[in-house]
Design a protein that fits this description.
By secondary structure, the chain is an alpha/beta fold. It has helices at about 10-20, 25-40, 90-95, and strands at about 5-10, 40, 55-60, 70-75, 85, 105-110, 110-125. The protein has a five-stranded mixed sheet. The longest helix is centred in the N-terminal third of the chain and has 13 residues, at about 25-40. The radius of gyration is 13 Å and the shape is globular. Pfam families: GreA_GreB. InterPro entries: GreA/GreB_C_sf (IPR036953), Tscrpt_elong_fac_GreA/B_C (IPR001437), Tscrpt_elong_fac_GreA/B_fam (IPR023459).
């Protein structure tokens, strides 16, 4: 996990609002609040290409099972899970947002803690 996540101000505000609505578990809330406290906020055009954010497709690897999975993160209103489009507030997005390629993250998913590595981040329009 990056020492400091990098977010656009819009995503930062979206996550803060999500936390205010108590839409996360206590474990997720603790991690996210700590990340937000230390987050670096940038304008969208200043965001590095390898940072997870909205409208980017990522590939992650579960370090226990060695399985790789791809996710495309979109605005919450454009989520279409059957088409592989996940909300930027979905569990995987919250676990990875603001992190970059090469980061290893341990996250309390509903089916237990998982250690994942971000293998790639690609632009999606």
């Amino acid at each position: 996990m990056s020492e400091q996540i990098i977010l656009t101000t819009g995503i930062y505000d979206l996550i803060k609002e999500h936390l205010r609505r108590k839409s996360t578990t206590i474990e997720e809330e603790e991690i996210l609040l700590n990340q937000l406290r230390h987050a670096k906020q940038l304008r969208r055009r200043e965001l590095p290409e390898d940072v997870v954010t909205v409208n980017r497709a990522i590939t992650v690897k579960d370090l226990e099972t060695e399985e790789e999975e791809k996710f495309l993160f979109v605005q919450t209103s454009k989520e279409k899970v059957k088409k592989g489009k996940y909300s930027i507030l979905s569990p995987m997005a919250l676990a990875t947002v603001g992190n970059k390629v090469g980061d290893v993250i341990t996250w309390p998913f509903k089916d237990g803690d998982k250690k994942i590595e971000i293998l790639s981040v690609e632009h999606y329009n």
